[in-house]
Amino acid sequence: MNVIVFTSDSHNWCLKPFSLLFNKYWSENQRVDIAGYTDPELDLPPNFKFYSIAKPQYNKARWADGAIKFLRSVEYTHSVILLEDYWLCRSVCTSDIDTLLDFCVYCGDNILRVDLTADRLYAGGCKDYGYWNKFDIVQAKGAPYELSLQAGLWNIKSLLSVLEDLETGYKSAWDVELKGTEIVIGRNMNIFGTRQYPMRYVNALNNAQGKKTNFLGLIQEDIDMIMPFVPEENR
Fold first, then answer.
1. What angle do CA 110, 83, 41 make, to 5 degrees?
2. Dihedral sign for Cα atoms in the order 162, 168, 173, 176
3. Secondary structure letter of residue 155 according to DSSP
4. How far apart, in Å, are the Cα atoms of 61 and each of 145, 178, 213?
5. Which residue, 83, 152, 178, 196, is most buried by CB atoms nearer than 10 A?
């Protein structure tokens, strides 16, 4: 299994809390590739490796361009993709992720992603698709945010095909979710979720909180562990 974390210079500080919680709730043996711009030079665990997409950083309107450049460089065909503020708050069963990877491989290139959260389960219009091992597979065809960037297991080739078809001027992370969804629906690409959604995390940089960090959902023990690495202006 491969894990990619996308970040930006202004959010690089999130990587330290992310890494501490990731290694606690996933595994310190899991390789994590960080795709960013300026090396934060943080004291990250040895299973984390930082890759610079470009210097200077692309502006936020070119998020997709940065993602394309990095994804074209990887050798693996599937990966869990996360953002730097997806701070795990419950244990992740790695064998569950491997099981869903097997499902992705079985489905071939017409599958874009398997949602690892409850995003598709509660998207509206969710229907049972079938099952795979212990997982009840669901689908919400045509529902909003089919291309949601919430935690998912992605087919890299299929994701690149969508990102590369985004028109100039529609390449921000927000556009990826909205315009990308239009492409996905137009191509009738498959996006699945599960009733057992195997990953729980906190969206630490919740826009509704402004610059303040969202700690809701974290236990006090975890808050105490990461607080020294949260900038004063983000507390």
1. 130
2. negative
3. E
4. 19, 14, 23
5. 152
Residue found under tokens 């291309």: 147
pLDDT score at 1: 85
Q: What are the angstrom distances between the C-alpha of 39 and each of 10, 13, 80, 133, 161?
A: 12, 11, 22, 40, 28
pLDDT tens by residue, 55-113: 999 999 999 999 999 999 999 999 999 999 999 999 999 999 999 999 999 999 889 99
- For the chain, which residues make up each domain, given as ranges? 3-234
The sheet with strand 152-155 has its strands ordered as 48-52, 32-36, 3-6, 78-83, 152-155, 111-115, 190-194, 135-139, 127-132
Region label for 16, one of left (φ > 0), alpha (ψ between -120 and 50) or beta (otherwise): alpha
Domain 3-234 class, CATH top level: alpha beta
Record the pTM.
0.96
Identify the bridge partners of residue 154 per DSSP, sorted by sequence position: 79, 113
pLDDT average, residue stretch 124-133: 95
Cα maximum dimension of the chain: 48
DSSP class of residue 223 equals H
Rounded Cα distance between 88 and 116, Å, is 12
